[in-house]
Design brief:
The protein has two domains: 104 residues, Phosphorylase Kinase, domain 1 (2-Layer Sandwich); 285 residues, Aminoglycoside 3'-phosphotransferase, Chain: A, domain 2 (Alpha-Beta Complex). With 403 residues, it is of the alpha+beta class. The strands form four sheets. Strands 1-2-3-7-6 form a five-stranded antiparallel sheet, sandwiched between helices. A three-stranded antiparallel sheet has the order 8-10-11. The protein contains 14 helices and twelve strands. β6 and β7 form a beta hairpin. Helices cover 53% and strands 13% of the residues. It is globular, with a radius of gyration of 21 Å. It binds adenosine-5'-diphosphate and ligand LNRAV4D5. The site of the ligand CSC[C@H]1O[C@H](OP(=O)(O)O)[C@H](O)[C@@H]1O has 13 residues, from α6. The ligand CSC[C@H]1O[C@H](OP(=O)(O)O)[C@H](O)[C@@H]1O binds next to α6. Pathway: Amino-acid biosynthesis; L-methionine biosynthesis via salvage pathway; S-methyl-5-thio-alpha-D-ribose 1-phosphate from S-methyl-5'-thioadenosine (hydrolase route): step 2/2.
């Protein structure tokens, strides 16, 4: 920590020049801070000479960027993010930006520039479609989750991995801002006044709160696999053909359904937001159907890849016991539904919102989308234990939309 300093755009350029073989000697480097997340600085550094080469510098600050130094936060998250990116690239090649360099003292990662990709959340608001996304993200989920679990690793190796990815401060953000504060009258909450009655009903619903308590307990105690830990559509960059996952600074050993649930929750937040963005019924239903088909395909790819990995590579002595694989996958499905539900509700009631809904300028229209998101979120949590197939998740969404 002693040599830590926050880089300016110019200092980032100087630093880039001193990394061997990163840029040509005669490079004319231009640097721009482009971070739009809650936590860190991100610099885009480009050679304006013909090499045209560019890289991304991501630097952790010793505090939460959007709040300031009143909320200190560990710089260790840059080490976790860098190691998670390197591991994810080994487990699922080309699914993440390449890491070129990591400086522990400066909490800095130098990585591949993905500027030709777009943050998926923005593309979804523009109603873009990504035909290869389900295959790519479903494979990413199956490979990163299966291959870091006790199913694939020796118990010793897995526990060493879990120890090196212990991430208490970032997990605590999730424990508070995903599982606790949004379900209580907490000062950090920020919701549309037009949905105050729906929020109040959630706070008074003890059956719901009991289920959220169980899901939170799972997040805190169930070290099934190395998770990305914050896999929302702002942490996914896409082109029409390709998908890259960024920003695994929340990585830790947790329940597999938390990552799958994050992807599904954010597709469903976008689904709900089109109640406000897309007044034409036919156009809206067409895009919402596309989102539901995407969700089903993601799960189906995940399940097929996961079963294939299990049949080919499982080390666990009980792996071949009849019924174990089916029961394992059913548990993941039910966790997926529950965590998706929590994540949808936190993005409407809690501190950190999503631009899918926030970009609906008319508060009444926004309230419509937000209410749908809260209805779906509650039902996913409450009905999860009866679910046996991805169709059950889709049925919850369709029923909530029709009501
Ligand atoms: N490898 C990359 N290539 C291009 N842009 C990137 C890359 N990594 C991050 N960004 C840009 O920086 C923004 C913030 O990055 P992110 O890793 O999400 O930061 P934070 O941890 O603060 O949320 C992203 O939304 C994206 O626009
Ligand atoms: C005050 S942290 C809130 C929120 O921010 C993180 O998202 P990101 O790093 O992608 O901006 C994470 O989702 C936290 O829960």
């Amino acid at each position: 920590m002693s040599g830590y300093r926050t880089l300016t755009e110019q200092e980032a350029v100087e630093y880039a020049r001193n990394i061997p073989n990163l840029f040509p000697e005669d490079a004319r480097l231009v640097s721009r801070e482009i971070g739009d997340g809650n936590l860190n600085y991100v610099f885009h550094i480009k050679d304006e000479r013909p090499s045209g080469k560019s890289v991304i510098f991501k630097q952790a600050l010793p505090y939460v960027r959007v709040i300031g130094d009143s909320w200190p936060l560990t710089l260790e998250r840059a080490r976790i993010e860098s190691e998670a990116l390197i591991l994810e690239d080994q487990l699922c090649p080309s699914s993440v930006p390449k890491v070129y360099h990591h400086d522990t003292e400066l909490a800095l990662i130098v990585m591949e520039d993905l500027s030709v990709y777009q943050i998926m959340r923005k593309g979804l608001v523009e109603k873009k479609r990504y035909p290869n996304f389900p295959k790519q993200i479903g494979t990413f989920l199956a490979r990163t989750l299966f291959l870091t679990s006790d199913l694939a690793m020796s118990p010793l190796e897995k526990k060493q991995k879990a120890a090196s990815f212990t991430n208490p401060e970032l997990c605590n953000i999730t424990e508070n801002f995903v599982f606790t504060y949004p379900f209580h009258d907490h000062p950090s909450n920020a919701y549309n006044p037009l949905i105050a009655n729906v929020v109040q009903r959630i706070w008074n619903n003890n059956e719901l709160k009991l289920e959220i308590a169980k899901l939170k307990e799972g997040f805190m105690t169930r070290g099934q696999a190395l998770l990305h830990g914050d896999l929302h559509t702002g942490s996914i960059m896409v082109t029409e053909e390709d998908t890259k996952v960024i920003d695994p600074e929340f990585a830790y050993y947790g329940p597999m359904g938390f990552d799958i649930g994050a992807v599904i929750a954010n597709l469903l937040l976008n689904y709900a937001a089109h109640e406000g963005h897309t007044p034409d019924l036919q156009e809206r239903e067409s895009y919402q159907t596309y989102l539901l088909e995407t969700i089903m395909e993601i799960w189906n790819v995940f399940e097929n890849e996961f079963r294939a990995l299990w049949n080919e590579k499982a080390q666990e002595p009980y792996a071949k016991v009849p019924g174990y694989q089916d029961s394992y996958l059913q548990n993941i499905l039910q966790d997926t539904a529950g965590y998706a539900g929590c994540k949808m509700m936190r993005r409407v009631i809690g501190l950190a919102h999503v631009s899918d809904l926030e970009s609906i300028t008319d508060p009444k229209l926004r309230a419509k989308g937000e209410t749908l998101a809260l209805t779906i979120g509650q039902e996913l949590v409450l009905q999860r234990k009866t679910m046996t197939s991805i169709k059950d998740i889709v049925n919850v969404v369709v029923a909530a939309t029709q009501n």
